[in-house]
Input
Amino acid sequence: MYKHIFAVIILLLMAFNITAQEEVIVNVDKTDKENKSKVFVNVDQNPEFPDGKSGLISFYKKNSILEICNNGENCKTLYYQVVIDTLGNAGEYKLLRGINEKYNNETKRLISLMPKWKPGKKGDKLVKVLVTLDIKYKAIE
Output
């Protein structure tokens, strides 16, 4: 008798758990207005800088006042995050690990000069995406 009651309770809990998961999935599917104000980290298609990673490094080298590091050199790495909006603009940013005021300010300046990116997508909709990047500056002792 207790085995049957226990089995029924387990089945009810499993049914409740499945229903709760389905509700979350339904809630994730938002309207365009709501998605435009949200910033996503995980998307189906990440934003892409023109010509990809090599294009981004070329952009740094062409536009930076400070020298950008080449492979094998003594480098200082600065990490930052930037929001790429639905139009491909680099907007809000945050320094995750800076170097010093000079390098940090140069990174902020470079972000403000960035050309339009190919925007990120979630499903078939363009969305704002938080991208984590780094810049390797040549270490000047």
Summary: The first strand starts at residue 39 and ends at 40. Residues 31-138 form a domain with the TolA/TonB C-terminal domain fold (CATH 3.30.2420).
